[in-house]
Design goal:
The protein is 35% helix and 23% strand. The protein has nine helices and 14 strands. The protein has a six-stranded mixed sheet, sandwiched between helices. A four-stranded mixed sheet has the order 13-3-2-14. A two-stranded antiparallel ribbon has the order 1-4. A hairpin with a 5-residue loop joins strand 2 and strand 3. The longest helix is centred in the middle third of the chain and has 19 residues. The structure holds zinc ion (ZN). The site of zinc ion has 7 residues, from helix 8.
């Protein structure tokens, strides 16, 4: 029996994953550890966490705030094989919680969450997959007006990334408001990366979080930043990825 977890942990490059390894790992139907999933993010240059050592640099966000971590799910999910693999990992976790409960709809949010939710729908055996879309006329608002969820159908919401409850609540409110019938949401939210400023958070409202990866990622003004205070250098992640991650 091949040990796919070990093979992924020892992979040297993204190529190693994409030449069969990750597909075979998916077909094995096994769970993989968070460490192993983060190794995949790392090979895509899509993830970094500060390790607490103030001699190591930390991240400056576009907002000007300091942070101890950085995730960019699109850099992983743009690879269809990786999206399929991660969708299956999330589907396994969801099935562990909901058993054989029928899932009629899987719904994602724009933009990054749409294709991922579609892959999760397939992995879960859901009947339908769709998405809310951005409202071009109202900033931060979304639309649900292209398809109809009928009464008694169940809906599972999927996100690729959760930092706060804002987007996920917005999606739910948009669907309830736009759909002509009452909507039956399952009491769970499935997410690839759950990265609130403070853990543990096990639910948002009446929906419990089911996450593949969970990390506490904070952001703060430089004057309140513990890492700045200890002399850690600041880098913008996208421009200085090698320096920030030590991959040089
Ligand atoms: Zn700082």
């Amino acid at each position: 029996m091949r040990d796919y977890e070990k093979e992924i942990m020892e992979a040297q490059s993204l190529k190693d994953l994409l030449f069969g390894l990750v597909n075979n790992a998916r077909l094995s139907g096994k769970f993989f550890s968070e460490k192993c999933i983060l190794k995949i993010f790392d090979l895509c240059n899509a993830y970094w966490m500060h390790n607490g050592d103030s001699k190591k640099p930390h991240a400056k966000l576009t907002s000007g705030k300091c942070s101890n971590g950085f995730f960019n799910c699109l850099e992983v999910l743009k690879y269809q094989q990786l999206s399929d693999f991660l969708a299956q990992q999330l589907a396994l976790l969801i099935r562990e919680r909901i058993g054989n409960t029928k899932v009629d709809w899987v719904i994602g949010s724009p933009m990054a969450g749409i294709t991922f939710a579609h892959d999760v729908a397939r992995a879960l055996g859901a009947t339908k997959s769709f998405f809310t879309e951005k409202d071009p006329n109202r900033s931060k608002k979304m639309l649900w007006n292209r398809v109809v969820i009928y009464e008694k159908e169940t809906v599972l919401q999927i996100e690729e990334l959760i930092t706060t409850a804002q987007t996920l609540n917005n999606v739910q409110e948009t669907i309830i408001e736009g759909n002509p019938y009452p909507v039956n949401f399952l009491p769970f939210i499935g997410v690839l990366v759950h990265r609130p400023a403070k853990l543990p958070i096990s639910e948002y409202g009446d929906r419990k979080v089911i996450a593949v990866v969970e990390k506490e990622v904070w952001a703060t003004e430089p004057e309140d930043c513990p890492l700045c205070r200890e002399g850690s250098i600041l880098y913008r992640p996208k421009q200085n990825w090698e320096k920030l991650t030590g991959k040089q």
